[in-house]
Write a structure and sequence with these properties.
33% helix, six-stranded mixed β-sheet, alpha+beta, 2 domains, single chain, 263 residues, Trna Endonuclease, Chain: A, domain 1, Alpha-Beta Plaits
């Protein structure tokens, strides 16, 4: 299997320099955002999953793969699995003292992630943005933002398809004289505001930028502010999700509001 995945690429960048903190953060971000196939000891029942546990390096590990073919290659025979995001799996393993074996023996990104690193990832993903109210007086072109942040935002928003029409990054001046950079989402899906704000907070965290370096706002395309954002802002297009056939039975973890239960 010669074609590399996003996780392979991020792992290679991290492995090239173990002192590169930014590369390490990007790897964990890709791990959290990836769909992973969790090897189970038995078929999932309702919303419960039973991961296969392996005793390795004095710790218990569950095994995940970023492609079904890689899981099949490792196991060598049909085996039950659950397709879950890395962030859901990290949340399931939090406080369990269980590590994560990623793509073991079947990919360049083969790695054992110890329990303490899984716990750190779960805690990092659990941090939410602070809420505040301020009236925007003026917007202008963004300036001086690090390339690492722009790259992180672009990658993160690519995973938020269908949650908003677009986003604009601008320099904003607020009523009362405050100034900061602002990422404004246009026509966000009702109820998606929290997820989008959290995605931006994660982009800040995993790019190594201090929290609070970027504000988030939501506007409708019909508002006068939207035209100013389009005039002065750096635009990010969120992908439109492809229509999928109706699924009769939802797989465990497919509903973000109902994460699976670890058995």
């Amino acid at each position: 299997m010669t074609d590399l995945t996003a996780l392979d690429t991020a792992h290679a960048a991290m492995a090239a320099n173990d002192r590169d903190e930014a590369a390490r953060l990007r790897f964990y971000e890709r791990l959290a955002d990836s769909e992973l196939f969790l090897l189970l000891s038995e078929e999932a029942v309702d919303e419960s999953v039973s991961p296969e546990l392996f005793e390795l390096s004095d710790h218990s590990f569950v095994l995940v793969f970023d492609r079904e073919e890689r899981l099949a290659q490792f196991v060598g025979q049909p085996a039950p699995y659950a397709a879950l995001s890395g962030r859901v799996i990290a949340g399931l393993l939090a406080d369990q003292g269980i590590g994560l074996g990623v793509n073991l023996e079947v990919a360049p990104s083969s790695i054992l992630i110890p329990p303490e690193a899984v716990e750190w990832l779960a805690q990092t993903l659990g941090h939410g943005p602070d809420e505040a109210e301020a009236r925007i007086e003026e917007v202008g072109r963004p300036q001086g933002l690090p390339e690492a942040l722009l790259t992180a935002l672009d990658a993160k928003l690519a995973t938020a398809g269908g949650l908003a029409h677009a986003a604009y990054l601008v320099a904003a001046r607020y009523d009362g004289g405050g100034n900061n950079h602002l990422l404004a989402f246009v026509d966000a899906v009702p109820g998606a505001e929290g997820a989008l704000a959290k995605a931006v907070a994660e982009a800040l965290t995993f790019s190594g930028i201090e929290a609070g370096a970027l504000d988030v706002s939501f506007v409708r395309a019909s508002e006068p502010l939207a035209a100013k954002l389009a005039q002065w802002g750096l635009r990010f297009d969120l992908p439109h999700p492809q229509a999928v056939a109706e699924v009769q039975r939802a797989a465990p973890g497919s509903d973000p509001a109902k994460p699976p239960i670890l058995r």
